[in-house]
Amino acid sequence: MKKIMLLTIAFAMVVTANAKVNDNDTIVVENPNRVTVVTTDSLQSVRIEGKKGDPGFTYQSKIELTDSNYTSTSAINSHDFSYSIGPLKKCSNSDERDDVTGNFFVGFNGAPGMPQAADVKLFRSWEIGFTFSYNFWKPYTKKAPFYFSAGVGLFWRSWRIKDGNMFMKNDNGNNVITTFPEGASPKFSRIKVLSVSFPLLAHYWTKAATFAFGPVVNLNVKSSIKNKWETDGVEQKQYFNDIHVNPVTVDFICMIKFGNIGVYGKYSPCSMLDGKYGLKYKTFSFGLYL
């Protein structure tokens, strides 16, 4: 209790100016509405609510005591968030970069090299995925704008055709393009591939945007063909699994992010399917990411 009282008095003595972080990492708050200090055997936390001209202002700092050492995290305003788990951290300070970042991707797929009979529909062929990446090259500050990351993620990619033709794996196990059954009303035919992806990227930070580029290694773990049509008003479906996708392919990606949203483009010089079994084509995609 004595420690809490002394620390509270110390905070009351320094709250005489607007909130800012000085060179000595001292934060000063003028006219706080409430100051809460909690001390336990392993944790000490300070929370300040409200300041002059900004009743919604909050500041929180935590010091975790572990074997005579400590780990400190802090956040300013309720929309900021920070964590520290072992060597990993998420920064609440806009002057720093996070150790771990996550991105969600959604875009469209093309298929250069696909036979003309396929007529892949670019804006009907989707790519959806997410990645988690670890950022290297400390310190993570605006004074070090160039850094690298390595990550892992999942991507679902599909290539869809329509209007009469469809993908198929024939009796010999080869991938071919054929026509829908006579009298059928085609809905779609598509190839789908699930990949475990490993992006290895170089990043460059500016005040206006963040740029990233590099290879993405894909382990293509699952593939299928699905055809859908109607005959005499009755819906029909047809599936083929394990369509001889190449187990490893490499994409090259370029990403530009403005604030919280970005655009990306990817191209792969590798064929998605093993050409020994009929069809082969390269891939490209573009879209948005968060």
Q: Tell me, what's the shape?
A: elongated
Estimated helix fraction: under 10%
Derived from helix and strand composition plus strand pairing, the structural class reads: mainly beta
- The strand order across the widest sheet is 7-8-9-12-13-15-16-17
Parts with pLDDT < 50 across at least 5 consecutive residues: 1-23, 78-95
Query: The biggest beta sheet, please?
Result: 8 strands, antiparallel, barrel
Q: Could you state the oligomeric state of the chains shown?
A: single chain
Count of separate DSSP helical elements: 1
Strand count: 17
Radius of gyration over alpha carbons? 27 Å
Gap between N and C termini: 46 Å
Strand content: over 45%
Q: Provide the residue-averaged pLDDT.
A: 81
How do the SSEs run, as a string of H and E? Answer: HEEEEEEEEEEEEEEEEE
Describe this structure in words.
- This protein is mainly beta.
- 4% of the residues lie in helices and 57% in strands.
- The protein has one helix at residues 2-14, and strands at residues 34-39, 43-51, 54-66, 69-76, 83-85, 88-90, 100-110, 126-135, 146-161, 165-169, 175-179, 185-205, 210-231, 234-241, 248-258, 261-268, 283-289.
- It has an 8-stranded antiparallel beta barrel with strand order 7-8-9-12-13-15-16-17. It has a 4-stranded antiparallel sheet with strand order 1-2-3-4, covered by helices on one side.
- Strand 1 and strand 2 form a beta hairpin.
- The longest helix is centred in the first third of the chain and has 13 residues, at 2-14.
- 22% of the residues are buried.
- Residues 1-23 and 78-95 have low confidence and may be disordered.
